Amino acid sequence: MAEKKAKNIHEVKVNITGDEWKKILDNTFKKVIKTVKIDGFRPGKAPRDVFEKKYGKQSLVVEAVDSSMQDAYKKALEEFKGDPIMQPTVAIEKADEEGVTYVFTFTTKPDVKIKRYTGLNVKKNQVKVTKKDVDAEIEKMRKEYADLQLKDGKAEEGDTVIIDFEGFDGDKAFEGGKAENYSLELGSHSFIPGFEEALIGVKAGDKKDVNVTFPTDYHAEELKGKPVVFKVTVHEVKTKVYPELNEEFFLDLGLNDVKTKEDLEKTIKETMTEQMEYQSENKFIDDLFEALLKETSVDVPHELVHEELDRMVRDYEERLKMQGITLEQFYKFTNSSEEKLKEQMHEEAEKRIKLRFAIDEIIALEKIDATDEEALKDAEEKALKHQMDKDEYIKAFGGLEMLKYDIKVQKVIDILKA
Q1: Residue ranges of domains in the chain, CATH in brackets
Q2: pTM, whole model, 2 decimals?
Q3: Residue 71 CB: number of other CB atoms within 10 A?
Q4: What value does the mean pLDDT take over residues 117-138?
């Protein structure tokens, strides 16, 4: 066996010949002959020369190559003293009656050079929640809990009209342009431009022809840029009645401890501050990582990029499933494919791997470690937060070693922050 090195790509050849290969071929024949049918012989009783005449000698060689690959891999690992960062690839250089030559290609960690990882000049956005922010959030809550009540008068922007409508292209009704008892909020911009605006001022019982022109980028080809008329009948006009800021409203919000408007403002401000602080912290870390990547140079192995892309596609598929969409449906809806999706993800995949190498390099340079005790304490705290059993949380996270690595990463982040 011989090893050929080129940067972080290493080839190890494993040759199996002589008596060892003869024994593998013999054992392979004894196994295969039990599964084939040869006229004139009971199962498993046909001699080898008859088998080879019927199926060819190479068929036995192919089976022997498959059966001996695992042992060859073990030999390659014994020969290769490095620390591979992924499963090696394998190729068959030669395989015949005389022997087989496997070529295992190992990928080790490439050289990682970081110009600097402290003093990255990244600043964290300061969080400030103003009274205007709080008032806007309260109005948003009131809008969500508003009741629609019948209005005896003209429709205004923000009101809801209950209508029948039918669309005509000239004298002909067009497909998809008809509805009954349709609830439409004026000003929601859910209809084509001009339709909602034309209904401002209508009253219950009114009939109105609404002339509009479909946008040139409308999805239905036959209606793009076309002037049409909608015949509309107004059944009801409803207006929003916003709830008062009282205990009944606070209870509807699930805020049992809130009794006054001042209590509500305080609670909202605390909640918004916490959310904005969380977002600011995440952006700070993302910005630090971006700055670190600019200071890092490394040749990312393309094999790792392919692995990361496969992982990213699987993750994306799981997210789609949560929305009730399959990956195949997504490709159909977006006129895309796995190849196109991976093209879009390629840059992000490279960044993720590069960042991983940079973090691991800092862990090594700073001699960062994490103990079992630290990991168990961290698991206990996070399991409590997620209302899970500690062991269940550790298993879900990927095991104790993954938890320890996560702690190391957090220590790297603390160094970057400093």
Answers
A1: 3-108 (3.30.70.1050), 147-241 (3.10.50.40), 279-417 (1.10.3120.10)
A2: 0.71
A3: 13
A4: 94
